[in-house]
From TrEMBL:
This is Serine aminopeptidase S33 domain-containing protein. Residues 32-96 form the Serine aminopeptidase S33 domain. It comes from Triticum turgidum subsp. durum. It comes from the Eukaryota. The lineage of its organism: Eukaryota, Viridiplantae, Streptophyta, Embryophyta, Tracheophyta. InterPro entries: AB_hydrolase_fold (IPR029058), Hydrolase_4 (IPR022742), MAG_DAG_Lipase (IPR051044). Gene3D superfamilies: alpha/beta hydrolase.
Length: 125
């Protein structure tokens, strides 16, 4: 699959605390993805640059891939590098997952999470 067969999008969403969170999505542009994968970056990282290669490779393999810069990380608002409660990140990722799979029983039942430092907190996803 050539890079032209990958659709890449960026947008901002607001969380429950009123912060703007940057999100990025990679997906196959010519067919339905086989599953949805969330890329969860590590501390003091972001999704659009450090995870670009991974997102592109997974989309080429037929997956929809979504990433979000946690509050205070990357292009998201908030005190740089500071997360007051990691459980808030888990809630936001779960909410994004519910929204992203809405209307697709196939994706909802096949959602996956790829994690980094926060693996223990996100294990209940």
């Amino acid at each position: 699959m050539a890079n032209g067969d990958i659709k890449y999008q960026e947008e901002y969403i607001s969380n429950a605390r009123g912060l703007n969170l940057f999100t990025c999505q990679w997906s196959p542009s010519n067919y339905e993805p086989k599953a949805l994968i969330f890329l969860c970056h590590g501390y003091a990282m972001e999704c659009s640059i450090s995870m670009r290669g991974t997102g592109t490779r997974l989309a080429k393999a037929g997956f929809a891939v979504h990433g979000v810069d946690y509050e205070g990380h990357g292009k998201s608002s908030g005190l740089q590098g500071y997360i007051s409660n990691l459980n808030d990140v888990v809630v936001e990722i779960k909410a994004a997952g519910a929204e992203d799979t809405q209307g697709s029983t196939e994706l909802a039942s096949a959602a996956h999470v790829v994690v980094s430092v926060e693996g223990a907190e996100l294990a209940d996803f």
